[in-house]
Amino acid sequence: MAKSSNPDKVSLTKIQVEQLQTRLKERDLTEEDASLLSSVLDLNFWLQEELANKNLSIKRLQKLFGFKQEKKPTPPDLDDANTSNQDSVDDINKKNSGTNPEVNSANNKNNGDLIAGSQWDEHKNHGRFGADDYEGLPIDIINHSDELLANGSCPDCADCNSAGKLYPVPPSVVVLLGSQPLISGTRYQLERSRCRLCQKYFTAELPDASQNQSKYSYSCYTQIAIWHYYAGVPFKRLEMLQAAQGVPLSDSTQYDLMASMYKSVAEPVVGALRQVAANSSMIFIDDTPGRIVEQTIANKQVTNKKDKSSIHATALLTEIDGHRVCLFDTSTEPAGKSMKKLLKQRKNPDDFITMSDASQVNFTELEEDLMAKWIISLCLVHSRRKFHELLTEHDQDIQLVLDIMSTVYQNERHCKQEKLNDNARLEYHQKHSEPVMAALFTWLNNLLLHKEVEPNSRFGSAIFYLLKRWEQFTEFLRTPGIPLDNNPCEQTIKILIRYRNNSKTYRTFFGATIGDAFMSLIHTAVLAGINIFDYLNCLQMHEANVNSQPERWLPWLYQQTMAELATSEPPP
Prior knowledge:
Largest sheet: 5 strands, mixed
Distance between the termini: 85 Å
């Protein structure tokens, strides 16, 4: 076999492997078995060679063994949604009746996949930014320099002895972009003199604007916070970049500045955010491993494995009054306990909904009154993914499951496009999604009941995973406002993952607390659609007010607070 060529694909089910092993033990191999074993040996040799030469990637292996990636086809016309629903129900009814028809490939394409591909819009998808997109740039207004133009007269008409008058039209905008080191400033060189007689020194004074300014301005703190905690650039890398551009700033100094800013403004505002989030009616939860060197050292010093603790990095995304609050928590407590700690501040008497995957770390025992108000919903995408991974084993049956779930997402897309409220959305899903989901439930149960699928196989495990938690996966068919999946929180937790992948670890728990606070504050501001640079600067400018009334400085309120302070403060 050529070294560069791919081997023949060898795809066996669990049953086929067991049968082959039985014939091998009994020494009753057929010619087909011999050919198959030869292919397996070729594959094993090829894998060894490719691994030795470091030529293998996960993507290449998945392609070799036939694992398919999720596609993003053009979504179907929503006018066909009802037809797709009926087709899916008919397909399952046929399977429940004992027949096993082939899935029509054309119907599969019409049904689409879970995630729709982007659609071209000639007015939006041009790849250019308009002048209004540069809202972070200051505006320098330039008036006409010509005397006639300044007076509202047309110079061309004046040359012809006419009196053409001008009227205002929208201004022409020119955007010029420049750059400088991330942390920059001014180096003043103050002239000094010394008296020959009394030996006294005289030094020129700083400009008035710089008289009482500290070495590190508000914008300096802000830029470090944004680039380190939100962009994920490590302190050491920032130190290297600053030194290479002639403005040195050590990593230890950066950390000291962030610790100071955390104590002065970030801690009180994040505390206010937690109080708001605790009273939310919707909480998205996700969890990922974290790293803190302080805990790693502690784990190495204990002798009993039960005394060791792992680090969990949790993202809690809440919605309240149209605003989203993002909270990060990196500690030894898993996601469920982080949520429990948050709910201790809850004063809202209404029920609350949680959306997460089915991992046990997302759940915990709450107080009795909270347990009675807790509505648990699970992410449908996680269940769908377990089936999608099996496309090579039971393509026809798996594709039918995916088509049913795709129909549900088509209905969800229709609800969003029509901007249906929670009650109208619930009615639409009950009418169009509930029948296909009910048919799916019956069919999957029959597969296990009649032993058409091995319960311990991958397909059986995927079915069991869905059926065991069916009520939580389909809560959107009974309770208004329940989302289909946990995608918003999974997108949010990437902020933590980006920081973890770049900086690798926190050194101490206090350092993790600082990082969680800044990421929570900045990402909540991003979700609110405000300028994070201006926001963090304003918090520092009004430090005293922020500490006394942090609830007035939440990202979606700070501009109103600034306006109120501007009218109440006496003129200078």
